[in-house]
Amino acid sequence: MEEFANRIRNYYQDPLDPLAEQFLFRRPPTVGELRRPTQVLLLGNHSSGKSTFVNHLLGDDVQKTGVAPTDDGFTIITHGATATERDGPAVVSNPDLPYEGLRHFGDQLVSHVRLKLRPAELLQTVTLIDSPGMIDEAKAENGRGFDFPGVVRWFAERADLVLVFFDPDKPGTTGETLQVFRESLAGIDHKMLIILNKVDQFQSLHDFARAYGALCWNLGKVIPRKDLPMIYNIFVPLADKPRSRLPMEDFEKARNDLIGELRRAPTRRMDNQITQLQAYAGRLQLHAMVIDKAADRFKSIRARWRGFWLLLFGGLGAAAVGTGMVVALPVIAVVAVLVFVFIEYLILPRSKRRLIARFDQIFEKLHDRELLLRDRAEDLRMMWEEVSPRAREIAEKSGLQSFKKMSWHDRELLEELTSTLIPQLRSKLYDAMRDNEAPAPALEQDRPAMSPTSEPPRPRLVKGDRAGTPKRKTFF
């Protein structure tokens, strides 16, 4: 697994990080984020039983529980030799912890983050992140004081498993829950598990069926799939609760299955990191190639207008000198300055705005062949919808003329990474996981497997020969 982790880190370091910086794309995950422990994010309505489930997992009263909302912050629960707690500023400022990225959500969010260290066996391999219970009243004008859907998205993208809890009283009906599904959990279905908790509250199959049907109805409106994901119907046994009249054996099995999935979260981690790498590289490729093409066109337009200006007024000046009309030179110079200002401050800005407005057409032209394939077209267009607002904002603020042209090497490297190398890496990971008792296979047929602590060779470009013919680049 360390061998695969090293390869992923090197792909971010080169070529993705330099290209992201060149085209002002969002920064890649830090080394701390890539080296983070396995994380499980728990979401749900208030009083849906998240904290009770955490306490059941750890065998200790780590989190406060209650019917009313008992916690308005994000609690990171990880392993420690002794039970200690740290506040938000200490958590986000610690370079050894992978939570620096929470800073940009502001001090209001940081003050709602805490870290708890507990000597529980499960926490040696899994870090739990408990979240505030979702409610109806969290409106934009008088909400939590920070971007709650954005923070949930940040945690969900980095989590290896996302558990979403519902309870019989609120089976997916709170406004904030529906907002989080639409804005924060889109695209991470592969690591999301849905839980209908507290099924021991039902006293008849009729009540259970109504709540289960209501949950499926609400989920169908926010999960864009033909078939709904599996729903774990569970309960946490508590000594002071009256026993339900329903047979509990299947619900107990579902709880054990859920805990088994949670304990297997470390095996999901590397696959999730490859998925995150693939998504980041694909979005960076769209962002960079569209901006690069628009910037290239803009520079061509600017060069033509400047060439026309030089040719016209250079010719007029030469003609004036040649015919002896030297007195006309000051007039020509004034007109030349006015025309230059007209080109630079009216014509070229208008051309830039037109090019930025045509980003969708540039995207379609760059990917015309891929867009003919239905499955590929849907993925590409979905990615472009996510990337395009940021690409337009960057191009407008920075100016198309400020972007250095993407080199042939970078273009080929990015294409090979997204189309070949990352899928190969995932395939080799699956092979290694299927035969986890044997040593992990070498990532290259002619190269022996590296030791867990060794670093793979850095990617580099092989320059062309003396005749100038470019050779294929190699990562190894």
From TrEMBL:
The chain crosses the membrane at residues 303-321, 327-348. InterPro entries: Dynamin_N (IPR045063), P-loop_NTPase (IPR027417), TRAFAC_Dynamin-like_GTPase (IPR051943). Residues 436-476 are annotated as: Disordered. Residues 40-199 form the Dynamin N-terminal domain. It comes from the Bacteria. Keywords: Membrane, Transmembrane, Transmembrane helix. The keyword Metal-binding does not apply. Coiled coil: none annotated. Pfam families: Dynamin_N (PF00350). The keyword tRNA-binding does not apply. This is GTPase.
